[in-house]
Amino acid sequence: MSDRYLPRDFARLKRERQPIAVVTAYDAPSARLADKVGVDGILVGDSAAMTMLGYESTVDVTVDEMLVLTKAVTRVVPRALVIADLPFGSFQTSNAAAVRNAIRFVKEGRAKAVKLEGAGPTLDRVKAIVDTGIPVVGHVGLTPQSAVALGGYGPRGRTAKEASRLRDDALALERSGCFAIVLEAVPAAVAARITETLTVPTIGIGAGVSCDGQVLVWHDLLGLTQGRVPSFVKQYAALSPTIEAALASYVSDVRARRFPETQHTYPMADVELDRFERDLSAAGATRRTSS
After folding, report:
1. Residue 222 within a domain
2. Same domain, yes or no, for 185 and 124?
3. Which of 238, 260, 278 corresponds to the end of one domain?
4. Is pLDDT at 1 greater than 50 in this prediction?
5. Are residues 217 and 170 in the same domain?
6. Which domain covers residue 170, as residue numbers?
7. How far apart are CA 1 and CA 261, in angstroms?
8. How far apart are CA 196 and CA 256, in angstroms?
9. Strand, coil or helix: what is 282?
10. Are residues 180 and 195 in the same domain?
11. Is residue 95 in some structural domain?
12. Across residues 190-210, what is the average pLDDT?
């Protein structure tokens, strides 16, 4: 394997039954840490709309905003496979729009792959993008970009009919050229059967341990999310209280003039300070005379 992860490495990991670890990241410090600990993939997800940009849903984020975040990640990641989410409106209208925006994420954003939500019309978009030589990740189950139209943010595939449709959609995405498929908010048993059926790896988020890999949102797993966290999230840290306490201490120190202390300032030689004071006195005298 090369030092940098490629899409074919995900296929190899599935063959070797080695779980694939993916995390979202949206800025250079986060991406650098994720790559340092050895994640296999970093998804610059459109979840950045809420986690980073303050929007109410993923549909609000633009291509240009996602490109800024993608470039921040790819600048500092030497190893993990960086996958960029194509945001709402960037691929739904036509194959030409999908290809044009996918190319932007590869040329300008330096991503190594892009991700698209859904099946149906998305299948043609996937084929068109793959035909240009850009690797694509599919996404079925809960697809946040179309969640409102499809009945909200609940799990998908809890009836036999829905489960069969998810399986068919995943197979269709594989045939269209996807090298991996995200399964979101899908019953574990359904995700396990889909994973067994596909030759490409599945990346689960709320889809059980039998998927070939897992992905979580950076802010969710580190305890930085404000408000409700999805039930499928495991929080590995609770950083919000720590950060709040640090900020509160800083504000308190500033207002009480406890910060900065001597060690936080730059010294000046006494002789230079004397010269500076004489210069100030001379400048003051000049101003008084001229007035």
Report:
1. yes
2. yes
3. 238
4. no
5. yes
6. 7-238
7. 51
8. 62
9. helix
10. yes
11. yes
12. 98
135: which 2 tokens?
A: 């690797």
Average pLDDT, the chain: 94
Total number of domains in the chain: 2
Fill in the amino acid letter for 144. Answer: P
Residues 6+ apart with CB under 8 A from 206: 142, 155, 184, 185, 186, 230, 231, 232
Distance CA 65, CA 63 (A): 5
Query: Does 119 lie in the same domain as 79?
Result: yes
Using the predicted structure, report yes or no on whether residue 48 has a pLDDT greater than 80: yes
65's tokens: 């905003």
Q: Which of 156, 182, 144, 141 is nearest to 48 (CA)?
A: 144
pLDDT in tens, 150-176: 556 678 989 999 999 999 999 999 999
**Beta bridge partner(s), residue 24:** 43
Catalytic residue among 16, 108, 184, 261: 184
Instruction: Work out the pLDDT band at 249, boundaries 50, 70, 90.
Output: very high
Q: Is 108 a catalytic residue?
A: no
Same domain (yes/no): 140, 176: yes
**Structure tokens, 205:** 């988020």
* Nearest C-alpha neighbor of 105 from the set 62, 142, 51: 62
Q: Which of 44, 43, 47, 66 is nearest to 58 (CA)?
A: 47
- Residue 86 tokens read as 């194509």
| Same domain, residue pair 214 and 269 | no
Tokens standing for 21?
């670890």
Nearest-angstrom CA–CA distance, 10 and 203: 10
- Averaged pLDDT for residues 200-223: 97
Q: Give me 37's structure tokens.
A: 């600990």
pLDDT at 144: 83
